[in-house]
Each structure stands twice: as C-alpha cells, then as structure tokens.
Sequence to fold (587 residues):
Amino acid sequence: MKTRNPAHTVRTLRRTVRMLLVVLALVIPLLPIFWMLVTSFKPQPEIFRLPPTVLPLAPTLKNYAAIVGGTLATSINFLRYFRNSFVVALGTVITTLMFSTPAAYAFSRVPFRGKRSFIYVVLVSQMLPVVLILIPLYRAAISLRLVSTYLGLIIPYLMFTLPFSIWMLKGYFDTIPRELDEAAKVDGCTRMQAMLRVIMPNVKPGLTATAIVTFIMAWDEYIISLTIMDKNSMRTLPVGMIQTFVGEFTIKWGEMMAASVMATVPVVLLFVFLSRYLIGGLVAGAVKG
Amino acid sequence: MVATRRELGNGVFAFFLILPSFLIIILVIVYPLVNAIVTSFFRYLVTDAQGMVFVGFRNYARMFASQQFWNALAHTVVYVGGTVVGELAIAFALALLVNVRFRARDFINSLFFVPWIIPSVVVALITKFLFFDHFHGVVNVVLKQLGIIREFVPWLKDSNLAMPTVLLATIWKMFPFMFVIIYAGLQAIPEEQVEAGKIDGANAFRRFLHITLPNLREIIVLATTLEFIWQFQYMTVIWATTQGGPIDTTTTLPVLIYRTAFLGGMDMGYGSTIGVFWLVFLLAFSVLYVRVAGRGEE
Fold:
C-alpha cells in the first residue's frame, strides 16, 4: 500500500470541497425551475398549504388539463397561442437565415471595400431602441394591413435577428480554413460552387447554433408581439400567458406554472439536443466578432 | 489588369450576396429610424384628430423638464448597471469554480446555462410566484422561518424593494451568457502562464490579478458592452411583473416609451423623442466605454 503524503491529502480535500461547492451552486439555476415544476403538479389546495410541501403529496395533471382543455377563463384555447408562437418563431428562423447566410459569407470571405465598417453597423443596430423602431413599424403595419398577421410580426423581428445572425454566422465562416477555398478553386469550382458545395456543409454547426438562438429570441419576444397581435386568436404565448394570468383577482398558481412549463419545454428540448452547438456558437460569435 | 477585374468581380459578387439583407435592414431599421427621428419633432397623438403638427424642439424641451423622464433614466442606469455587475460577479465566481478538470463538467456547465433559455415571461411569472406577498410566496415563508423577516414582505409592491427584486430576476436569467464567455476565456489562458506564476510563488489571488484578469480583459469588455446594450432594451421582466410600478420605481426608459407611445393618449411624437435621446445617450456611452475599458488593445 502506498503511503499518503500530506500534500496529497490536502489536495484531495480541496477537490472535495470544490465539488461540493459546484453541486451547491447548481441551486442557483435549478431551484426556481424546480419550484415551477413541482407547483405545476400540485392541486390548488396544496399550493396554499402552510408550511408548503416540497414534493406534491397528491400529484395531479389537472393544471395541465385546464390549460390544454381550455377550461381557463379565456375565450381562446391555450394551444392556439402555442401554435402562433411556433409559426412565428419558425418563420423568423427561416427568413433570418435565408437573408443572413449569404451576407455573412460575403463579410467573411469576399474582399470588398467598406467591409470593416460592418461590425460597427451591427453594434449600432443592437443599440437601436426596439420600442422606438416599433412606433413607425406599427403605423406601417396598420397601413399595410399587417396587424394581427404572422408576417406582420416576423418582419419586425428581423430588426434584431438579422444583424445578430449575420454577426454570429460570420464568426463561424471565419473559423473555416482558407485552404478549403483555395482547394475548391484549384478543382475548378466557381465562387458560387465553392460557397455552396465546399463551405456551406462545413458551417452546418454554425447554422444550427444561429437557428437556435434566433428561435429562442423569437419565442421569447413580448413587447412587439403585444403591439402587433391585436386579435386574441393571433396572440403568441408570452402575450397570451400574461393576459391570462396577470391581473386576475384569483391567483391560479398551478395553472400559471403548468403553462410556464409548457412554454419552456420546446426551448429546453432544443437545448438538450443541440447545446453543444449553441454554447460553442455563442462563444465563437462573441470572441471572433 | 487581371487584378482589377478580379476586384471588380469580388465587388459584384459581394454586392449580390449582401443586397437582400441590405434591403431588409433599410426596411426594418433605417426607414423606421429616420421616420422616428422626424416624428420626434412633431406633436402626434394617435388618439386626437389633429394629426401631425410640427413643433420643433418642443418635445425635447418637455422631456428635459420632465422629472418622470430623469427618474426613468436614473432607474435605467440602476437596472442596467446592477444587472451587468451582478451577472459579472456570479459568472466569474462560477466560471472560476468549474475551471478545473472533473467528470461531467460539460454537463454541469450546461445546467448553469439553463436560465438563459427560459422564456422571459416564464421568468417573470416565477418571480411573481416566488416573491408573492402572502403565505403562498415561498421566499417570504422561508425567510420568516429563518427569522430574517418578521412580517411577510410585499417584494414587488414595495417602492424600495421592487427594483432589487426585478434586478435579481433579470440577473438570474442573464448571467449564463456571461458565464460561458468568461469560462471560454479562462480555458484559453495558456497553461504555461499559470505554471510560471506558481513557480514565481504568486498566490491564487495574485495569479488572478496578474494573469487571469489581463488575459480576460478583451473578452470582458466585449461581453459587458453587449450586455449594457441589450439590457437597455430589456423590459419584459419588468413589464410582466410590475408594469413599471409601484409609483414608477421600476419605470426604465423602454417602459416609459412604451407607455407614452402605445397606451393612454398614444403620444408617439413625445415617445419618439425619448427614444432618440436614448439612442444618442447609448451611442455616446458605448464609444466612451470601449475607449476607456478597451485601452491597451491594438
């Protein structure tokens, strides 16, 4: 048996303390989420119990049933808000990538004048007050009859998703070695072919990461949606949830938390399957840009 | 000759790749921005029949004379500053904590990232629930049990506590972005530098000060600038919890503009004026901040 030297023991001890701290620190991100989850499965009387129960004594799906079944005090089925959010978020992702991908490629690969001012344009575009831009956009939406339409919401979303997406994708294109372009040229590819057949397949993780971030942005957006989606049947999830749960005199915590869980599940699923791309992509974007 | 032709070709190629985005940006950013700047010089209430009446700088005069505006600016500075500083502190602590090799580190890191993807409205609803002022608000119950408070505290309805409460919720939602960036920065510090520091007999604190911080400087400047800019916009958590109240104590500039331009009389002229001021303010601040904090880079 090996004799243990004290330095080694100290190191092991420090390591154990550190790992304990890591586990303890996990309370910060997870505790509020845990509370949302358990509350969503508690029947109403149990939520009002003092002292509160940690895990539901009599777990129930009633809160979820109330939301899916439309027995809430809203005239609209909650699933409708869900669908609206999906259509808008997906539409935003597709539109954004369609426009941003060629632009990001150009900023990364093609030498042309005025390229360097691009980063400033992106930074400034992030500074523009969304509520300020919203004033003329809302007026335009009224005269173009785009109020309460999907397109009427997707177009304004481009004001923040498009610059961000170009910036993030450019970071990704920059990581692809120049030799690939040269090789493609030697093989007789035109610039267009080099872009589509050689560079694009390599940038798939970057496209995935950008798509996720764009989806999350659109899924999360509240104030533009509140303004543009006038009709209750066209409301997205965030607006529908606030209209349903805030300002009511009875506080339906159970249903509120169940709806919150449901609004969170799609983005968490995206994250579970694609977190590798997402975190790497964010860091690449921030560091490279 | 060949080179020039090629350059020209590049220009044309780039032009066609960028053109669609360029047009969209004109449509959703440049046009509305110009329009909003113009509107800021008009008296324009959607709800009255007068239409747009040119008033010169009268909206600006009204803004600078308005106590409500200055309060909102102060609240914005507190909210944005508090968020960025709070995020930075938590992100740094956590990133340093996990900056050793251990099993399942990637998994643990992704758990720390989770709040960032939780929808803002959900964060707001959870905040309302946790900080509710009756006995079903679990924060009150726990604090009372621990003897820290005697009576249940109406966190979001108290004019002194509402701002700290929304700040806390916002920091919780936003810190993961800072965390992954600082963590990536820590990972990129060359091992030799840390080892050299150890050999020179520098303790952990001095190594942090003289090796870690200088290496992270650029990344921190960038991440905090972005967060400053983004947090200035961010109003969802505030709007969905307090709507700017109680008595305006959580009314930041975006909340004020929204209320002015889209609620009540829908005063879009004056609302635009506040927005234009904000843009100028943020531009000036960002340039100054990057100049000062980014000093020392090329």
User: Anything to note?
Assistant: The domain at 49-293 of chain B is CATH 1.10.3720.10 (MetI-like fold). Chain B touches chain A through 91 residues (CB under 8 Å). Chain B is about 70% helix and 0% strand. The first helix of chain B runs from residue 2 to 39.
